[in-house]
């Protein structure tokens, strides 16, 4: 087994494909190739922006699939993981590619992030790792950690778990994963990918404070805003973002809130219009557009210039007639081909670098001849636009646009020009009519409008309605402020509730763990108790057995005692008998005869031994005699062996002595033993022997 095979075999989970080893990747929890497509594309875009290879940090690098693929592109990669087996796999794979600039570290992500310095990394990956930190540390803290990280790096790519996942960390996650990275300048959902844990797809995001990226295109952000103009005042509640870069203008709209349908329709309509503009109508180039379940986006050519609203707000010199003519020419061209712009406003007109007025917000161009808000009639709405351009006063558009649809408050020549429209039947109204009449109007204008009853009536009505409108705006502003304060309080309460819920869930989890541990301990104690009971029953049974054995032994001991007592009585009777007394001389004679016999034999043996010792020594001194004796003894092995043993015993040879037991086999066994006798039997035997000796002596 190779080193990498051994490392992979030691893994608790094959989470990713093994880089460069498809034969070891079968059965991995995630294919990861789908995510790699997006990561690689972003890497190449950012590399082009930075004009160098990137420094990459891979948080929770697992088996190093993404780290090593980026290292293969030339990146300097630092992977970190809390599982030592993963780090060992990464280091083993890295050893197979010494040309890669990479390192892998064992450690905790949250601790490592505290040490990251600004500019230390360009690209940071955090795929399916932060939900563990949210569960452990809380969503507010992790949100702050990611926000700090985004200020130190160029771009972040993250995959986040969802609150609806049926796993222990689910309840701790924010309802919208964008909450964790929503304060970044640019945020885009790249895709959604399945996991092996639940039948729920997780979103993959790209976030940055420095660049934007959409469909393989990206540039450094020059400026961005959640409002399309200075008077928007949060009208879309953060559901829109606009980005400006060197070559592109970018729109990213959320489509999952209350403004979702309008946002989605507007961007789709704008993309379609730019892809197929009417003949002769000048539009910026369309680069890409798209959408998913959460957002829509559009990337177009950037038009050099500034909004008409901003020029008016600065009170800069402005050729008002030229602006109106430029706008009318575009509106008339659209009208001739069945198109209408339903939101002609000073913030939807841009003055390009040549000071030519150009309509923008192409998503508001459609085939319905109606404005998007009051007064709904396109031409009445255009009258308000004219009033703002020629007077240089632009009112806030909430809750209504300025009540200024009569021509009588306009300066000349615009009062006569617009009054001419009022003299025509409504069915004859058109932008071409307005264009032709403005081109025909003299620059100097005519006499001021005479104050007639009609003029007075219309002016009074408009001023009253405008006063009501301003009051409504004030009330609405107060209501918005109050609602914002309430929302802030509710948000704080929600966050506090979330924290309390998280604490409760953790406490509940701890209690559940304690309960499980106590249950396990109780089961262990119960099992141990059963074992002890079984042992006790076994001991009781054994005790009964040994008790019975003890009774039996006591019975046998009693029998032995009885027999010993009987034997003692019989011995006493024998010693006291007449026959024992009368046979005493015979016993004495036998004993004395045995003693004499033994003494004679011992004396004979000593004489023989001395003679034999002398003979052996003499034979040993005569080699020829010794040889003849040895030759003779070879015919009698038994005798030769006994003579050799005798010589050794007398110290006549140097051979090692053998124990007596082996020279005289069977002797030890022949000595009777009395170990088997009881203490009572020993006493009887000793008394018997003593009595014999005593009586024999006396």
From TrEMBL:
One of its GO terms (molecular function) is ATP binding. Residues 501-542 form a coiled coil. Pfam families: Methyltransf_31. Residues 225-550 form the Protein kinase domain. InterPro entries: Kinase-like_dom_sf, Methyltranfer_dom, Prot_kinase_dom, SAM-dependent_MTases_sf, Tyr_kinase_AS. It comes from Pseudomonas taiwanensis. Keywords: Coiled coil, Methyltransferase, S-adenosyl-L-methionine, Transferase. This is Methyltransferase domain-containing protein. The keyword S-adenosyl-L-methionine applies.
């Amino acid at each position: 087994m190779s080193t990498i095979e051994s490392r992979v075999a030691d893994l608790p989970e094959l989470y990713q494909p093994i880089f460069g080893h498809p034969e070891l990747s079968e059965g991995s929890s995630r294919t990861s190739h789908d995510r790699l497509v997006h990561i690689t594309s972003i890497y190449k875009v950012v590399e082009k922006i930075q004009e160098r290879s990137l420094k990459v940090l891979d948080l929770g690098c697992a088996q190093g699939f993404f780290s090593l693929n980026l290292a293969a592109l030339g990146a300097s990669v630092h992977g970190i993981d809390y599982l030592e087996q993963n780090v060992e796999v990464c280091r083993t794979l890295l050893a197979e590619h010494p040309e890669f600039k990479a390192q892998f570290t064992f450690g905790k992500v949250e601790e490592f992030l505290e040490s990251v310095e600004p500019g230390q990394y360009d690209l940071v990956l955090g795929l399916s790792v932060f939900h563990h930190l949210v569960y452990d540390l809380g969503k507010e803290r992790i949100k702050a950690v990611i926000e700090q990280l985004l200020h130190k790096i160029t771009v972040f790519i993250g995959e986040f778990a969802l609150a609806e996942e049926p796993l222990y960390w689910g309840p701790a996650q924010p309802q919208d994963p964008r909450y964790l990275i929503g304060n970044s300048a640019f945020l885009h959902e790249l895709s959604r990918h399945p996991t092996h844990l639940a039948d729920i797809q997780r979103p993959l995001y790209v976030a940055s404070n420095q660049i934007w990226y959409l469909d393989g295109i990206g540039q450094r952000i020059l400026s961005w805003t959640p409002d399309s103009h200075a008077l928007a005042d949060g009208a879309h509640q953060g559901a829109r973002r606009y980005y400006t870069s060197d070559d592109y203008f970018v729109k990213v709209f959320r489509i999952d809130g209350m403004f979702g349908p309008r946002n989605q329709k507007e961007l789709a309509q704008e993309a379609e219009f730019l892809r197929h503009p009417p003949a002769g109508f000048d539009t910026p180039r369309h680069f890409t557009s798209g959408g998913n379940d959460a957002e829509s986006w559009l990337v177009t050519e950037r038009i050099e210039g500034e909004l008409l609203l901003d020029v008016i707000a600065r009170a800069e010199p402005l050729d008002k007639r030229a602006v109106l003519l430029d706008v009318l020419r575009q509106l008339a061209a659209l009208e001739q081909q069945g198109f209408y712009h339903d939101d002609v406003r000073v913030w939807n007109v841009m003055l390009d670098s040549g000071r030519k007025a150009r309509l923008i917000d192409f998503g508001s161009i459609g085939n319905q001849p109606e404005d998007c808000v009051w007064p709904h009639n396109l031409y009445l709405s255009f009258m308000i636009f004219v009033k703002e351009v020629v007077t240089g006063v632009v009112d806030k558009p909430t809750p209504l646009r300025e009540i200024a649809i009569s021509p009588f408050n306009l300066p000349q020549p615009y009062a006569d020009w617009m009054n001419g429209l009022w003299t025509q039947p409504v069915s004859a109204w058109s932008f071409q009519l307005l264009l032709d009449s403005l081109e025909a109007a003299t620059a100097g204008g005519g006499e001021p409008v005479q104050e007639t009853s009609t003029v007075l009536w219309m002016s009074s009505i408009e001023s009253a309605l405008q006063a009501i409108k301003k009051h409504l705006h004030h009330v609405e502003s107060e209501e918005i402020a109050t609602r914002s304060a309430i929302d802030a309080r509710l948000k704080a309460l929600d966050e506090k509730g979330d924290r309390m819920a998280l604490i409760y869930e953790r406490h509940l989890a701890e209690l559940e763990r304690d309960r499980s541990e106590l249950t396990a301990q109780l089961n262990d104690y119960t099992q141990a108790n059963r074992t002890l009971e079984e042992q006790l029953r076994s001991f009781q049974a054994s005790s009964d057995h040994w008790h019975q054995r003890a009774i039996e032994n006591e019975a046998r001991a009693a029998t032995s005692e009885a027999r010993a007592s009987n034997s003692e009585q019989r011995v006493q009777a024998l010693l006291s008998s007449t026959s024992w007394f009368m046979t005493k001389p015979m016993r004495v004679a036998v004993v004395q005869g045995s003693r004499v016999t033994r003494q004679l034999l011992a004396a004979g043996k000593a004489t023989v031994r001395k003679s034999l010792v002398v003979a052996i020594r003499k034979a040993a001194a005569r080699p020829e005699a010794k040889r003849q004796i040895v030759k003779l003894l070879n015919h009698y092995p038994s005798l030769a062996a006994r003579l050799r043993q005798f010589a050794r015993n007398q110290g006549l040879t140097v051979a090692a002595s053998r124990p007596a037991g082996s020279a005289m086999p069977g002797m030890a066994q022949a000595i009777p033993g009395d170990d088997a006798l009881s203490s009572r039997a020993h006493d009887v035997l000793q008394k018997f022997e003593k009595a014999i000796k005593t009586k024999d002596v006396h």
